[in-house]
Amino acid sequence: MAKTKSPNRTLKSVTSEPVVSQAKQSSPIAEELKAAQVEKPASAPATYPLDLFERWVLFLDTLRERADNMIAHERQGMPPLLDFKYETLLDARHFDRPANYALLRITEIGDDCWDDCVDEAKPPVIVVDPRAGHGPGIGGFKRDSEVGIAMHEGHPVYFVVFFPEPEQGQTLADVHHALRRFVEEIAKRHPDHPPILYGNCQAGWAITLLAADCQGLSGPIVLNGSPLSYWAGEAGTNPMRMMGGLAGGNWAAHMT
Q1: Hey, which residues does 175 pair with through a beta bridge?
Q2: pTM, whole model, 2 decimals?
Q3: CATH code for the domain in which residue 178 is found
Q4: 168 Cβ neighbours under 8 A, 6+ residues apart
């Protein structure tokens, strides 16, 4: 049998039109990265000590400015850091059982005065300044505080402030007696509306005792950061639990 020759097949190279790529346009981020690589790594050991020295000088200058502000504040008698105008209603330093506390009435917030903001149909709010190691008035040193919010809601606002130094022979019972006098004064001014007691941190525990002793004089109490039971909160999440303090605080969790 004659072999059948297969037809010659010519392999044709498939040619394609050259792909015209678009010109790469560098993004702003790429430009910044490129500019950052211009500096040679060898210069880093020289710039780091200089930057460290400059930051240390700025840190010392910040401490100096802070100390100057503290000295000026002490020379002024350490007035409350309230961002609101106020008048003093009662000064417990002149009580028969003196204590370093005073009752203030907030009279003005910015351009708004008492008559413009206060709705007498709403219960008054007594904000107790927490004595937790900082200066007096920290509970109302900015507009967006409990004082400003309550005032803008139309509540008559009163503020219990403390003085840095205690009176001679002062006890915690004297402080409690002074706070009770303050609540009685507000109850007389607003006989139809028992005052709302507001306390943060140490002040929260103070108003808890105060509310128990002023039964029938005060209304609801608001506590912030003042846990009343050692089992409140969740383990490992709420380090302010009283049980945490008895067990060494948060250190025990960090040691495990």
Answers
A1: none
A2: 0.65
A3: 3.40.50.1820
A4: 98
